[in-house]
Write a structure and sequence with these properties.
There is one protein chain. By secondary structure, the chain is mainly alpha-helical. The protein is built from 3 helices and 2 strands; from the N terminus they run βαβαα. The protein is globular and about 40 Å long. The model has no long low-confidence stretch (mean pLDDT 82).
Length: 80
């Protein structure tokens, strides 16, 4: 899995490490990783290609859905 965010890469990596989730991702791309960022589709498609994914088989999650997943994982992590 990969992360594609408009936050700075180092901040995204720091947050994932603090949440003990960094180990689950092969690649993290922030707004400063490439010379372009979202909403440019290359920000997403390049991450998929870097991690060896198939663009035709990728499931794109909306930001809200992804945040719900992350919040659920965080809650489970904090209260387990």
């Amino acid at each position: 899995m990969g992360v594609c965010t408009n936050k700075q890469e180092r901040l995204a990596v720091d947050l994932l490490k603090k949440l003990d989730m960094y180990k689950y991702f092969e690649y993290v791309a922030g707004c400063d990783t490439f010379s372009f960022n979202k909403p440019d589709p290359r920000h997403l498609t390049d991450v998929v290609e870097i991690i060896g994914g198939d663009l035709k088989k990728q499931l794109w999650l909306e930001t809200v859905k992804l945040m719900l997943i992350l919040l659920t994982m965080l809650t489970c992590h904090l209260f387990s």
